[in-house]
Specification:
Elements lengths: L10 H11 L7 H46 L1
Helix pairs in contact: 1-2
Amino acid sequence: MSESKNVKINAHDFALAVVQSVPVNGDSPESIVEQKFELYLAACEKVMAHNKTIIEVEDATRAEKMKQRVNNLLR
């Protein structure tokens, strides 16, 4: 279960899935669009926050590997 937390998610695809799966009520097409748009943005923000820590770990890992390669070349 914890391994799934280390998977990057496509924000656009996830947000579309959220928007399509959550019914909203509105008194006009415009109000429905506004609610769907808010759902889309909220889903994107959540995914970007989720992905940020994964990307930071990947970047740190790459940097460490590069540092080791440089050190090995300098020996």
